[in-house]
Amino acid sequence: MIILVLVGGFGILQITSSNTIIQTLVADDKRGRVMSFYALAMVGMMPFGNLLAGSLAQLMGAPTALLICGSTCILGSLWFSSQVTQVSHWIQREIDASVIGG
Description:
Largest sheet: none
Distance between the termini: 49 Å
Radius of gyration: 17 Å
Oligomer: single chain
Order of helices and strands: HHHH
Shape: elongated
Structural class: mainly alpha
């Protein structure tokens, strides 16, 4: 139960963080369009991931499917963690440019 609470909490943290970054970096006149694509990517692609996980579970069994999907999530998290510094620098450059330009 504790692991489920942690996974849910970190999922919410990831969604709100990426939403904040996107809305901070996008120009005001394009924000609605970008957020609609963001919503499509987050909500619209989820059924395909569920279908993939269900298909894996049917082919290889639920424990193996969980292992594969969990490993993929961990690898994705490690990749994202390695990109945080570059994203932080990019955000700072965008903020500096908007302060100087605006």
